[in-house]
Write a structure and sequence with these properties.
There is one protein chain. By secondary structure, the protein is an alpha+beta fold. 33% of the residues lie in helices and 21% in strands. The C terminus is likely disordered.
């Protein structure tokens, strides 16, 4: 998915980009509509400022494209939901297998511990804090020869 934006400021290796999310084609919410507005939901409201790695040396005022790899939503869902669910199941199984007394209590404690551990593992694998899993590109048709940049 790709959204157009403008660099508002540069802070070290990162650029702050203001993106505007359009309302789609007008039939997005109808049956048989394009659903294009759903692609922009990760960006939130009508206008949002994103902190992204500035690997294209964009300057304030430069138009840019913000690109999100198609696999990012799936990875986010797996980290957010998949890992903790696997942890709950594995913890409940381990708690039941190691139970010396009350099997139900051991399974519940194991499930809670497994879910918490896998939640923390998912958070650790989520990536660099504060930088979103998106990249900047020059807009289509913006050649390097125009202004000497």
């Amino acid at each position: 998915m790709r959204v157009q934006g403008v660099v508002s400021r540069v802070d070290g290796e990162c650029a702050w980009v203001v993106v505007s999310v359009s309302g789609g084609c007008g039939r997005c919410h109808e049956a048989g509509g394009c659903g294009g507005v759903n692609i922009a939901r990760p960006f939130g409201g009508v206008q949002r400022e994103l902190r992204l790695l500035n690997d294209i040396d964009a300057l304030p005022g430069d138009p840019v494209s913000v690109v999100v790899d198609d696999a990012v939503p799936l990875k986010a869902a797996l980290l957010t939901y998949g890992f903790p669910i696997l942890g709950v199941l594995a913890g409940a199984w381990l708690g039941t297998a190691l139970a010396a007394g009350n099997v139900d209590l051991s399974a519940a404690l194991g499930a809670g511990a497994g879910g918490a551990v896998m939640y923390l593992v998912g958070r650790a694998r989520a990536g660099q804090a504060g930088v979103m899993p998106m990249k900047l590109e020059r807009p289509q048709g913006a050649g390097a020869g125009g202004c000497g940049r």
